[in-house]
Sequence to fold (389 residues):
Amino acid sequence: MAVDSAPGAGKPLTLTFISSSTPAETQSGKSLRWVDSAQRVRKERARKTKGRAASDSPTSSNPPDSASSDDATSPSSDDSASEFGGVVMPYRYGVTIHPALNEASNAQTRRLFSHFSEIIAGHMVVLDSFSFSNGYRDVILPLAQQDENLAQAVSVVSAFHLGQRDPRLQRIAEAGHQAIVQKLRRDSLQLSPEQLFNPYILATILVLLVGETITGADNYTYLLEMLNCLTQYPDWISMLPPSLKDFFLQQIKMFQLFGVPLANESKGLQVLTGPEAYLDFMAYPELPPHSEHFTNMETIRSAIFDACSIYRRRAESSLTDDESIHLVEQLRLKVLNLDSTTKGAHALVWTYFIAAAESILPEHREFFAGRLFITMIARLGLDPDNGKV
Fold:
């Protein structure tokens, strides 16, 4: 590893990573390194003690723009701050690091990261507890502390969520969101495949898609297409460490399952022909069969399958009114005992939407529209009685 400049010297730290093994000719320079979470915490504590006065100085609420289109990917450094654990990352090239979150980050940025960890991350997985890994907390946030563009995406999504009660944050989030999307568009045209296909851009797209589910903005289809484009070249994903690869693949499939059918009917039919292949995000093998969570997860999974079947048959024009009413009633009975407080019930947003759209009987539409409203309100942190925070 060659170091071209020292941290804090006023210019980006440039590191060159060299493979410790003898790689294939087409993969020269690739290596893996483990960033230990305990080591990160010790370093972070030492920095906080040494530079506590500097920690409180005001800085921009958003990290500066990440590496330009001429830069390669921005991997982690042992000197970057991390409160959220360690990750294994593959490296191929000499790269420029722009630390995104450190002791100089202001209170606003740290507040937004904390909100993402404590609130948003929990809504993006089916079950969130100390017993299960949450990739948005354990993978996305450590990566976001190493890459400015991803860090800004995390801040923007948190600002959108908090913007329900603070219009100023809403305006800041909208501007930041557009800036990130524009940079992604620019990079998609200017970067080489080796630079474009990297975990940071993939993580940024996933985080922005999370934001789209909060705001209902109009970039969802574009981001979904970009996500699908990245998956057309799976080799680079397969080289990721298992923890990253598994999380990314689960989330890619989740957004494809719920997003593609709403964006493109013909492609949606292809996805929903075999929905079981897209439900890895619901896999919790640690759950004991006798637990309440296990039973609820089986019910949620079955309800999603039912909604997929309804979508397929409606798209294929093979559903009579009587059959439609019967299928919707079956689905209603299946989810009847799952309310908004049931762990994992927030995974039924798409299911409720499909059922409400398919409902012929007013009582069915009222039931599923009501479930959809309550679930979305809970995700936004609003009061279900008046729609306000």
Q: What stands out?
A: The two ends are 50 Å apart (CA to CA). Residues 203 and 248 are 8 Å apart (CA to CA).
